[in-house]
């Protein structure tokens, strides 16, 4: 079942990559014509959203868990893209307050995600978490050093 899920994620990655290429081609075409800065900026932000979604899928393939921090980053960029597309001055006061509240909550969640250790870093397989991996390697070397000085394998125990 896990292999089938990986296959689905790989197909999604290929689809996202194709959409990214089409969007890049659209940006190139838009730059050759008279510039509509709002549309070009919206297309660039959309490509950035697709790149972040691609990264989210790559993390899922490696760790088989969703990176909440990356998902929150994608959501923040998506909300900001909609503000750019519709224009900040054209949005009503109530919608502006709702967007500000959503961005505040997402920013708080991003801070919590940054300060909370990830579950895959706590597990036995720590190679995906460089800080924990480095600390565990240093601890292992320190323990090896301590135990190597206590007992010498070539000396008989008295």
Question: Could you characterize what this model shows?
Answer:
The chain has 158 residues and is mostly helical. The chain has 2 domains: 2-116; 119-149. The protein is 79% helix and 0% strand. It has 6 helices and no strands. Helix 2 packs antiparallel against helix 3 (68-86) and helix 3 packs antiparallel against helix 4. The longest helix has 31 residues, at 2-32. The radius of gyration is 24 Å and the shape is extended. Residues 119-128 have low confidence and may be disordered.
Backbone structural class: mainly alpha
Mean pLDDT: 78
Shape, principal axes of CA atoms: extended
Rg from Cα: 24 Å
Describe the structure concisely for a colleague.
With 158 residues, the protein is mostly helical. The chain has six helices and no strands.
Q: Can you give keywords for this protein?
A:
158 residues, mainly alpha, 6 helices, 2 domains, 79% helix, extended
Please outline the helices and strands.
Blueprint: H1 2-32, H2 37-63, H3 68-86, H4 93-115, H5 119-122, H6 130-150
Helix pairs in contact: 1-2, 2-3, 3-4
């Amino acid at each position: 079942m896990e292999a089938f899920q990986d296959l689905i994620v790989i197909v999604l990655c290929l689809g996202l990559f194709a959409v990214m290429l089409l969007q890049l081609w659209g940006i190139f075409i838009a730059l050759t014509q008279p510039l509509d800065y709002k549309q070009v900026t919206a297309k660039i932000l959309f490509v950035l959203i697709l790149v972040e979604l691609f990264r989210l899928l790559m993390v899922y393939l490696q760790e088989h868990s969703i990176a909440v921090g990356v998902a929150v980053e994608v959501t923040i960029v998506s909300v900001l893209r909609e503000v750019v597309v519709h224009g900040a001055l054209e949005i009503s006061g109530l919608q502006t307050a709702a967007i500000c509240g959503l961005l505040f909550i997402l920013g708080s969640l991003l801070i919590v995600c940054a300060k909370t250790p990830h579950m895959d870093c706590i597990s036995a397989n720590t190679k995906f978490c460089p800080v924990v991996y480095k600390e565990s390697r240093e601890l292992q070397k320190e323990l090896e050093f301590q135990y190597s000085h206590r007992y010498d394998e070539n000396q008989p125990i008295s």
